[in-house]
Amino acid sequence: MDDSTLVARTQRGPVKRVLVVVLDTNIATHDLPASGEVILGRGEGAGIRVDHRSVSRAHAAIEVGEVVRVRDLGSANGTSLRGARLPANRAVEIGANEAFQVGDATVVVHERRTGTRPTSPPPAGGDVGVAIAPLVVDPAMRNLFDLARRVAAGTINVLVVGESGAGKEVLVREIHAASRRAAGPLVAINCAAISETLIESELFGHERGAFTGAGTAKAGLVEVAAGGTAFLDEVGELSPAAQAKLLRVIEDRRVLRVGAVEARPVDVRFVAATNRNLEEAAAAGEFREDLYFRLAGVVLEVPPLRERRADIEPLARAFAAAAAAQQGRELPELTAEAVAALLAHPWPGNVRELRNVVERAVLLCGDRIAPADLFRTRGATAAPAPPARAATDGERTRIVAALEQCAGNQTRAAELLGIPLRTFVKRLAQYDIPRPKRR
Ligand SMILES: Nc1ncnc2c1ncn2[C@@H]1O[C@H](COP(=O)(O)OP(=O)(O)OP(=O)(O)O)[C@@H](O)[C@H]1O
Ligand SMILES: [Mg+2]
Asked: Among 352, 358, 422, which residue has the most ligand 1 atoms within 8 Å of its CB, making it the best to mutate?
């Protein structure tokens, strides 16, 4: 089959930790040692220098070992974690990707597994722009990531729900990394991108001669994920036949290859994601209810960006920094007006849309980013940000908004929302949205 239609990524190897400091227009990354202590502060002698008046000369110590701890060194403006200021000279554990404050700086320790290597190219139309370490700043997101890490420790299947581009995959990767299966593979399977005729053999494998073209036996992606996590992305798009087979795999912990007589045992944890209301789909008979309940051992909901506004500015700054670095240019200043425009925008395409908007602005702006650089339409003057919409309006509103924003271009609107064109067109029919002429 066409490699570009599925994503299978494997993660292995030891952990490398990177400290990310976000401050005003700056984002800096520092490699952390495998163990030991690093002082963070404004002073010359600090191992990680943060030159800002809100930061004391020796502000906090980062203790690196099995886990990472932060210890405030009696700083003037304090170090705070989970909204509370830490007492001086007491080390407190911080989770991977959990943001804490050092004076005015937001600091995150990001963990990377070295030796991470994609086993096939990313999907066409996938996230190809600059990627940054996950930023988790808003309290709602911090709680979600905390919960996800606790859930990760168990064996229960997890269903991640949320709008397109909100960060479901980011959360799934976090769950895998925090699980006891972290050393095993994380295999992402995009259920919407694989054609209906191939999905069963892709998921479950096939025996030699099972169908025309099956010249050799092949393990399915579920088997490839053995010892690790199978990430079923867009699980709501699975055909009824594939749903039935998947249910059996989950119940029996055995997988039957297409054309095989005997099932083979397989040890995988399933994490599924969807931007559909799968519970409703199950109730309406559009998705197997028994499978829904199997997959939804725990449901984690990634809130849309408009409901976690505290994330907008740090994400925008981080995306701007990454884009500037990638384009080899100086980081343009993000003006206060631009920040206000970002905060007022409803973000129907969520974090993905924010990333696209900021990347484009960095590419197009002079030495500063003004609102017109963010929301420009075909090189003209700034389009006013659409008014914020009620959070309950749901998917239909997002689709209409995306179409508006892309001047009726369905391909671009689907890209903006991060859903396959096929799914997008299906939704238009489902929601009775008149189909614009252009694709
Ligand atoms: N907390 C975050 N920090 C940094 N980047 C993020 C964060 N959340 C999302 N992103 C970025 O936004 C983009 C979309 O995220 P992701 O792919 O996880 O969304 P999704 O919910 O899986 O979308 P879809 O429904 O289209 O599959 C990616 O480039 C991702 O790296
Ligand atoms: Mg996704």
From this structure: 352
pLDDT of residue 26: 63
Please work out whether the CB of residue 169 comes within 6 Å of at least one atom of ligand 1: yes
What are the boundaries of each domain within the chain? 16-113, 138-301, 305-374, 391-430
C-alpha of residue 124 to centroid of ligand 2, in Å: 13
| 3-state secondary structure string across the chain | CCHHHCCCEECCCCEEEEEEEEECCEEEEEECCCCEEEEEECCCCCCEECCCCCCCCCCEEEEECCCEEEEECCCCCCEEECCEECCECCEEEECCCCEEEECCEEEEEEEEECCCEECCCCCCCCCCCCCCCCCCCCHHHHHHHHHHHHHHCCCCCEEEECCCCCCHHHHHHHHHHHCCCCCCCEEEEECCCCCHHHHHHHHHEECCCCCCCCCCCEECHHHHCCCCEEEEECHHHCCHHHHHHHHHHHHHCEECCECCCCCEECCCEEEEEECCCHHHHHHCCCCCHHHHHHHCCEEEECCCHHHCHHHHHHHHHHHHHHHHHHHCCCCCEECHHHHHHHHHCCCCCHHHHHHHHHHHHHHHCCCEECHHHHCECCCCCECCCCCCCCHHHHHHHHHHHHHHHCCCCHHHHHHHHCCCHHHHHHHHHHCCCCCCCCC
Residue 134 Cβ contacting ligand 1 at under 6 Å: yes
Centre of ligand 2 to C-alpha 242, Å, is 20
Task: Among 3.40.50.300, 3.60.20.10, 1.10.287.110, 2.40.50.320, name the CATH number for the domain at 138-301.
Answer: 3.40.50.300
Atom 16, ligand 1: residue with shortest CA distance: 167
CATH topology of domain 391-430: Arc Repressor Mutant, subunit A (1.10.10)
**Least confident interval from 5-9, 184-188, 334-338:** 5-9
Residues 280-324 pLDDT 10s: 999 999 999 999 999 999 999 999 999 999 999 999 999 999 988
CATH fit for domain 305-374, picks 3.40.50.2300, 1.10.510.10, 3.30.530.80, 1.10.8.60: 1.10.8.60
| Domain 16-113 listed as CATH 2.60.120.10 | no
With the most atoms of ligand 1 within 8 angstroms of its CB, the residue from 351, 399, 421, 422 to mutate is 351
Q: State the pTM of this model.
A: 0.66
